[in-house]
Amino acid sequence: MGMNLMAEKMRATAEELQAGAEELVSDYGKVKERLFIKICNRERNMEQLSGVPHKDFLEFAVTCHIEMGEYVGGTATITVNDSLLKAFGIGEDQLFEDAIANSPSIRPALIKDIDSLMAMLTGMDAPGMYCPIKAVTVEGLINGAAAILYPGVLERLAEQAGCPLLLIPSSVHEFLCLPEKDGFAKDDMEAMIRDVNEMEVRPDEVLSGHLYRYDPADGKLTAA
Predict the structure, then answer these.
(1) Are residues 84 and 57 in the same domain?
(2) Are residues 16 and 30 in the same domain?
(3) Among candidates 149, 188, 150, 181, which has minimal Cα distance to 164?
Protein backbone atom coordinates (compact mmCIF):
# COMPACT_ATOMS: atom_id res chain seq x y z
CA MET A 1 0.00 0.00 0.00
CA GLY A 2 2.82 2.38 0.89
CA MET A 3 4.57 1.76 -2.44
CA ASN A 4 1.33 2.38 -4.32
CA LEU A 5 0.85 5.71 -2.56
CA MET A 6 4.42 6.71 -3.34
CA ALA A 7 3.94 5.81 -7.00
CA GLU A 8 0.74 7.87 -7.14
CA LYS A 9 2.55 10.88 -5.65
CA MET A 10 5.39 10.52 -8.16
CA ARG A 11 2.91 10.38 -11.04
CA ALA A 12 1.10 13.44 -9.69
CA THR A 13 4.38 15.31 -9.42
CA ALA A 14 5.33 14.39 -12.99
CA GLU A 15 1.91 15.47 -14.25
CA GLU A 16 2.17 18.80 -12.40
CA LEU A 17 5.61 19.42 -13.85
CA GLN A 18 4.40 18.56 -17.34
CA ALA A 19 1.41 20.88 -16.99
CA GLY A 20 3.62 23.64 -15.65
CA ALA A 21 6.12 23.20 -18.47
CA GLU A 22 3.39 23.35 -21.11
CA GLU A 23 2.05 26.54 -19.56
CA LEU A 24 5.48 28.15 -19.51
CA VAL A 25 6.37 27.18 -23.07
CA SER A 26 3.55 29.37 -24.30
CA ASP A 27 5.09 32.45 -22.68
CA TYR A 28 8.87 32.85 -22.72
CA GLY A 29 8.47 35.97 -20.61
CA LYS A 30 7.51 33.68 -17.71
CA VAL A 31 10.28 31.19 -18.48
CA LYS A 32 12.90 33.93 -18.53
CA GLU A 33 12.11 34.89 -14.94
CA ARG A 34 12.77 31.30 -13.80
CA LEU A 35 15.99 30.51 -15.66
CA PHE A 36 19.24 29.70 -13.91
CA ILE A 37 22.51 27.97 -14.78
CA LYS A 38 24.36 24.91 -13.56
CA ILE A 39 27.80 23.60 -14.45
CA CYS A 40 29.08 20.04 -14.71
CA ASN A 41 32.15 18.24 -15.98
CA ARG A 42 31.71 18.08 -19.75
CA GLU A 43 33.56 14.82 -20.41
CA ARG A 44 31.81 12.96 -17.60
CA ASN A 45 28.37 14.05 -18.83
CA MET A 46 28.57 13.72 -22.61
CA GLU A 47 25.54 11.42 -22.78
CA GLN A 48 23.37 13.67 -20.60
CA LEU A 49 24.42 16.73 -22.61
CA SER A 50 23.23 15.24 -25.90
CA GLY A 51 20.24 17.25 -27.10
CA VAL A 52 20.79 19.90 -24.41
CA PRO A 53 22.02 23.41 -25.29
CA HIS A 54 25.26 24.01 -23.42
CA LYS A 55 28.24 26.33 -23.45
CA ASP A 56 31.76 25.01 -23.05
CA PHE A 57 33.84 26.75 -20.38
CA LEU A 58 37.25 25.31 -19.58
CA GLU A 59 36.47 21.62 -18.93
CA PHE A 60 32.93 22.37 -17.84
CA ALA A 61 29.56 22.54 -19.57
CA VAL A 62 27.13 25.30 -18.60
CA THR A 63 23.46 24.36 -18.91
CA CYS A 64 20.18 26.22 -18.40
CA HIS A 65 17.33 25.14 -16.16
CA ILE A 66 13.84 26.27 -15.17
CA GLU A 67 12.81 26.59 -11.54
CA MET A 68 9.46 24.77 -11.20
CA GLY A 69 9.10 24.63 -7.42
CA GLU A 70 5.73 26.35 -7.17
CA TYR A 71 4.09 23.63 -9.24
CA VAL A 72 5.07 20.83 -6.87
CA GLY A 73 5.72 22.70 -3.64
CA GLY A 74 9.40 21.77 -3.66
CA THR A 75 12.58 22.40 -5.63
CA ALA A 76 11.81 20.66 -8.92
CA THR A 77 13.57 21.94 -12.03
CA ILE A 78 13.46 21.24 -15.75
CA THR A 79 16.54 21.19 -17.97
CA VAL A 80 16.16 23.26 -21.12
CA ASN A 81 16.67 20.86 -24.02
CA ASP A 82 16.69 21.49 -27.76
CA SER A 83 12.94 20.90 -28.04
CA LEU A 84 12.12 23.45 -25.35
CA LEU A 85 14.50 25.99 -26.86
CA LYS A 86 12.77 25.61 -30.22
CA ALA A 87 9.37 26.05 -28.56
CA PHE A 88 10.57 29.24 -26.86
CA GLY A 89 11.36 30.73 -30.26
CA ILE A 90 14.68 32.26 -29.19
CA GLY A 91 18.30 31.58 -29.97
CA GLU A 92 20.81 29.79 -27.76
CA ASP A 93 22.77 32.97 -27.06
CA GLN A 94 19.63 34.70 -25.79
CA LEU A 95 18.82 31.71 -23.57
CA PHE A 96 22.21 31.81 -21.87
CA GLU A 97 22.25 35.60 -21.59
CA ASP A 98 18.91 35.49 -19.78
CA ALA A 99 19.82 32.52 -17.59
CA ILE A 100 23.09 34.09 -16.41
CA ALA A 101 21.38 37.42 -15.76
CA ASN A 102 18.57 35.83 -13.73
CA SER A 103 20.57 33.21 -11.82
CA PRO A 104 21.57 35.52 -8.94
CA SER A 105 17.90 36.17 -8.11
CA ILE A 106 16.67 32.59 -8.73
CA ARG A 107 19.60 30.90 -6.95
CA PRO A 108 21.39 33.63 -4.93
CA ALA A 109 25.10 33.17 -4.32
CA LEU A 110 26.18 32.16 -0.84
CA ILE A 111 29.78 32.82 0.22
CA LYS A 112 30.86 31.40 3.56
CA ASP A 113 34.07 30.72 5.42
CA ILE A 114 34.56 26.98 5.12
CA ASP A 115 34.34 26.57 8.90
CA SER A 116 31.04 28.43 9.00
CA LEU A 117 29.68 26.29 6.17
CA MET A 118 30.67 23.09 7.94
CA ALA A 119 28.99 24.40 11.08
CA MET A 120 25.80 24.97 9.07
CA LEU A 121 25.92 21.44 7.70
CA THR A 122 26.79 19.65 10.94
CA GLY A 123 25.04 21.85 13.49
CA MET A 124 28.29 22.14 15.42
CA ASP A 125 29.96 25.41 16.40
CA ALA A 126 32.71 26.72 14.15
CA PRO A 127 36.18 26.49 15.78
CA GLY A 128 36.59 30.28 15.81
CA MET A 129 40.02 30.24 14.14
CA TYR A 130 40.79 32.21 10.99
CA CYS A 131 40.62 30.15 7.81
CA PRO A 132 41.33 31.79 4.43
CA ILE A 133 39.22 29.27 2.49
CA LYS A 134 35.75 30.37 1.42
CA ALA A 135 33.02 28.22 -0.10
CA VAL A 136 31.20 29.68 -3.09
CA THR A 137 27.80 28.07 -3.61
CA VAL A 138 24.12 29.07 -3.70
CA GLU A 139 21.40 29.27 -1.09
CA GLY A 140 20.21 25.72 -0.53
CA LEU A 141 23.77 24.41 -1.16
CA ILE A 142 22.67 22.35 -4.19
CA ASN A 143 24.33 22.65 -7.62
CA GLY A 144 25.95 25.88 -6.52
CA ALA A 145 29.32 25.66 -8.29
CA ALA A 146 27.94 27.85 -11.08
CA ALA A 147 27.92 30.80 -8.66
CA ILE A 148 31.54 31.51 -9.65
CA LEU A 149 30.11 32.65 -13.00
CA TYR A 150 27.73 35.16 -11.45
CA PRO A 151 28.68 38.74 -12.27
CA GLY A 152 30.93 40.24 -9.60
CA VAL A 153 31.36 37.19 -7.36
CA LEU A 154 35.03 36.42 -8.06
CA GLU A 155 35.82 40.11 -8.50
CA ARG A 156 34.63 40.89 -4.97
CA LEU A 157 36.46 37.94 -3.44
CA ALA A 158 39.71 38.90 -5.16
CA GLU A 159 39.30 42.50 -4.04
CA GLN A 160 38.84 41.36 -0.44
CA ALA A 161 41.87 39.07 -0.71
CA GLY A 162 44.04 41.69 -2.37
CA CYS A 163 45.51 39.12 -4.76
CA PRO A 164 44.55 36.48 -7.35
CA LEU A 165 42.46 33.52 -6.18
CA LEU A 166 42.98 29.79 -6.33
CA LEU A 167 39.77 27.82 -6.94
CA ILE A 168 39.27 24.23 -5.86
CA PRO A 169 36.38 22.43 -7.61
CA SER A 170 34.94 20.72 -4.54
CA SER A 171 31.93 19.26 -6.41
CA VAL A 172 29.06 20.40 -8.61
CA HIS A 173 27.69 21.98 -5.44
CA GLU A 174 30.50 24.42 -4.63
CA PHE A 175 33.94 25.80 -5.34
CA LEU A 176 36.41 26.50 -2.57
CA CYS A 177 38.41 29.73 -2.98
CA LEU A 178 41.50 30.95 -1.21
CA PRO A 179 43.98 33.77 -1.77
CA GLU A 180 46.86 32.69 -3.97
CA LYS A 181 49.28 33.90 -1.28
CA ASP A 182 47.82 31.32 1.13
CA GLY A 183 47.93 28.40 -1.30
CA PHE A 184 50.27 25.43 -1.55
CA ALA A 185 52.15 23.95 -4.48
CA LYS A 186 49.88 23.20 -7.44
CA ASP A 187 50.83 19.51 -7.58
CA ASP A 188 50.05 19.05 -3.91
CA MET A 189 46.70 20.80 -4.21
CA GLU A 190 45.67 18.80 -7.27
CA ALA A 191 46.67 15.56 -5.55
CA MET A 192 44.39 16.58 -2.67
CA ILE A 193 41.53 17.34 -5.09
CA ARG A 194 41.86 13.92 -6.74
CA ASP A 195 41.96 12.16 -3.37
CA VAL A 196 38.84 13.95 -2.16
CA ASN A 197 37.05 13.23 -5.46
CA GLU A 198 37.84 9.54 -5.12
CA MET A 199 36.98 9.12 -1.45
CA GLU A 200 34.38 11.77 -0.61
CA VAL A 201 32.48 12.86 -3.75
CA ARG A 202 29.81 10.88 -5.56
CA PRO A 203 30.97 10.05 -9.13
CA ASP A 204 28.08 11.99 -10.68
CA GLU A 205 28.96 15.06 -8.59
CA VAL A 206 32.68 15.24 -9.43
CA LEU A 207 33.42 18.56 -11.12
CA SER A 208 37.14 18.42 -11.86
CA GLY A 209 40.50 17.12 -10.71
CA HIS A 210 42.28 20.35 -11.53
CA LEU A 211 43.09 23.60 -9.77
CA TYR A 212 42.01 26.95 -11.22
CA ARG A 213 43.19 30.53 -10.87
CA TYR A 214 41.29 33.80 -11.09
CA ASP A 215 43.35 36.89 -11.92
CA PRO A 216 41.56 40.16 -11.16
CA ALA A 217 43.98 42.02 -13.42
CA ASP A 218 42.33 40.60 -16.55
CA GLY A 219 39.18 39.10 -15.02
CA LYS A 220 39.97 35.65 -16.39
CA LEU A 221 39.54 32.21 -14.83
CA THR A 222 42.11 29.74 -16.14
CA ALA A 223 43.72 26.44 -15.26
CA ALA A 224 46.37 27.09 -12.61
Answers:
(1) yes
(2) yes
(3) 181
